[in-house]
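Input chain follows. Return C-alpha cells only.
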Amino acid sequence: MGISLAQRRTFIGLLAALIIVILIALSWIALLSYRLELIARDIDEASIRCTPSIAEDAAGHLHMAYGTAEGLMFASENDGVWTIEPIIESASYDMPSFRAASLAIDGDGWAHVASVSYWEENETWITKLMHSRNSASGWESEVICQEVSTYCGASLAIDSSSRLHIAYATRAGNSYLDANLFYATNAIGHWALYDISSRINAPLMEGASKPRIVVDNEDRPHIAFGWPYSAVYVTNLTGVSTMEIISYGGETDSSVAAYSQPSILADADGVVHVLCFSGSRETYLDDGVISITHFIVHDGVGIYENRTVKSDTEFSNAITNAIKDDEGDICLVYALDHEVGFAKLKGVEEVSLKTLHRFEEHRHRSSNALSVILRDNGEMVVSKPYRPVGYLTDSYSLSQRVYFAAVPIQKPLLALTFTALLLVAALRTSKRERTEEEKWRVVTQEKDGDHPPE
C-alpha cells in the first residue's frame, strides 16, 4: 500500500518545521558561541602599508597612526566620529613608503609617532626612523636615525615624565633580516642612540627583529624581540645590558623554538611579562602540542610560568600582543593569516585558544606589530591587521552581534534555508495537486451521474 497524498503532505510539513527549528537553534548556538568575538569597524578606505597603532587619551578618545600610499596618517575619534589628517604626506619627489608606525600619548595629551619609512633622495632609496609630534601649531617631524631596518619596524613608549623610548634596528648586511638592535631616547634632553647589539657579546643579537618596548612604574625601559627560533628579553639598556633567551623556557635546550614574535607588558605593579608561542622543533608538527612561554620579571628576578596549549595551528608567523584584562589575568592576543584570537593565562594549567575574529586570507594581513588596548570602560580594541584601515572591537549592539554570529554558519544556514524553501514549495505543490485531484473527482462523479455526499 502506497503513501497517501495526505500522509505525504503531513510528512513534508513536519520535515519543514524540523528544519526551521534547526535553523533557529543554529542561530542561537552561534550567537552564544561567538558572543566574545570582535567585529571590524573601518575608518579609512585606504589600503594600509602597516598595521595601525592605537592609543587612548585621558579623556577616553581613541587615536590611530598608520601608513598608506598617501603617507603617514593620524586618525582621532570624538563621540564616535573619526577625523583623519596627514602627518607626513607622500610627494612625487620624495615618495615615502611607511612600513611601521607606533603611537603613544604623553601626559599633556599630545600624540607622538615613531615611524619607519623608505625615502627616495637623489635617486637613491634610504630608510629613516622618524619621530612626529602634534601640537597646537600642527605636526612636527624629525629624523632620529637612517639606514634602519624596515622589516624590524619600531616600538615607542612614553614614561611618566613624557620622555620617549624607542626600540628599533639598523641594517647590518645585505639581507633584510640582518639587523642590529638599537635603543633611542630623549631622556637626557636630546636624542641618544644605544647600540644594544654591541653591548652584549651574543651572536643572537645579529638578526634582531620586531622589537617591542615598555617602561615600568619606575620609568625603566625593557625590550623583547624575535630572532630565528628564539625570543629575547633585554633590560638595563643604557648600562651593562643583560638578556634572557626566553623561548627556551629557562632551559638551554636548543630544540625548543619560538613560533611567534614575542610580546612584552609592564603592569601597574612594575612586573614585566614577556610571552610567545614556543614548542619542540621535532614534534610540533606531529603532535600539535605547543606552549606559551611566560617570563616574569619582578624586582630584577625572572621566573617562568609556562602553559601548555593543545592546538594544530601554525604560529610561526603570528604577531602578538599581551594585555591584562579587567579580571587581572594576562591575555596573549595573536593574529594569523586569516584570524585574530587570544589565550587567557589563568592558573598554570593547560590553556585553550579562542578565535575572536576571522577574515579572508587575501585581505593582505600586515606583518607589523599588533596593537591591543583595554579601554577604561572595559572595551577591548585591536588594530585591524588587514585592509581597509580600521579596528576590531568587542563592543557592539545586539543586531550587530546576531549578524556577526551568523557569519561562521553562513553556508550551512543557506543550505538549510534552500532545503526548507524546496520543502515548502513541495508542500504547496502537493496541496495544489490534491485540490486538482478533488476537483477532478467531483467532475468525474457528476459526469457519471453520481453526486458527492452533502
